Amino acid sequence: MKKWNGYLNGINLGGWVSQCEHTISHYESFISEDDIKKIAEAGYDHVRLPIDYNLVQKDDGSFIEANFKYIDNCIIWAKNNNLNMVLDLHKTLGYSFDDGQEVAEFFRNDKYIDMFISLWDELAKRYAKYHEMLAFELLNEVVEESDNAPWMKIAERTVNTIRKHSKDVKLLIGSYWNNSVLTVKHIVKPFDENIIYNFHCYEPLLFTHQGAYWIEGMPEDLRVPYPVELKEYNEKCDMFGENFHFTNWAIGEDGFNIDYYERLFAEAIKYAEEQDVMLYCGEYGVIDRADEESKKRWFTDINKVFDKYGIGKAVWNYKQLDFGIFG
Q1: Active-site residue, from 137, 141, 203, 283
Q2: Does the annotation mark 33 as catalytic?
Q3: 3-state class of 312 per DSSP?
Q4: What gap in Å lies between CA 83 and CA 81, rounded to an integer?
Q5: What's the CA gap between 185 and 269, in Å, rounded?
Q6: Residues 6 or more apart from 249 whose CB is under 8 A from it?
Q7: pLDDT by residue, tens only, the chain of 327 residues
């Protein structure tokens, strides 16, 4: 499988201009060039910058000119520190993966779709010229299977719009189930040679999200080691239903080990190879409540499989948001 050089070991800047308090004081203080320098010195080769549409776009479709400077700054700081960058649209009008309300109207609303296309047209007009160090991720984590077919049509239209500005900028497209690796096979055949298949991986979910206060019914004191005895893991999964069981088929008789990720990724790797497309994992990580030794073992196993197949990756998250690597 083709390897995406320059995007093999990245980190997310979540919480800066996405999933945040949308105020100028926050934008100005959360991330600085010193943070980007620290990331480069730690050995990362790129950053993934999630943005919410309302950073730069009003609900009437007009743009907030002054706020493009935060994207500008991130590009400049990345270039200054020899880092590449993924610009990820984490939220668009009418859709967000985590709002906890009915927000999937986007996929069937012509007004919202037109605004989405207009936003990417503007972003591409400004930033596609940086294609040698910058890639675009069209939308973060489609959730429902029923939204995948309309999303693929929207994605094709978006690709065609961006291509008016650049044939070379890499474009990342994911599928449903929050960009699950198991749904990569449902991404349409690549529209051109500069499409990259994108997925996220927080498996096994009960380990990576142990004690997560935002998951309904999750005890905040629940703790799960890695690896964990399969019987114990299944018993804990029973507390939460199918969403926590759906990758258990990949667990071998000897429990969790590196073979779990070999099995979990196998179908996506095969599909990407058949389409001659690179694979990229835009998010993976472990909640800060997990014990440090278990986290190290988890990262060791999953990273070995990423590296074996040349799958680019960006860990979630640089700081805060319950997954902070640097605090």
Answers
A1: 141
A2: no
A3: strand
A4: 6
A5: 9
A6: 263
A7: 899 999 999 999 999 999 999 999 999 999 999 999 999 999 999 999 999 999 999 999 999 999 999 999 999 999 999 999 999 999 999 998 875 444 568 999 999 999 999 999 999 999 999 999 999 999 999 999 999 999 999 999 999 999 999 999 999 999 999 999 999 999 999 999 999 999 999 999 999 999 999 988 899 999 999 998 888 888 989 988 777 888 988 988 888 899 999 999 999 999 999 999 999 999 999 999 999 999 999 999 999 999 999 999 999 999 999 999 998
Per-residue HEC secondary structure of 162-219 comes to HCCCCCCCCEEECCHHHHEHHHHHHCCCCCCCCEEEEEEECCCHHHHCCCCCCCCCCC
141 phi and psi angles, rounded to 5 deg: 50, 75
Residues in the chain: 327
Q: Specify the residue for token string 């990362």.
A: 44
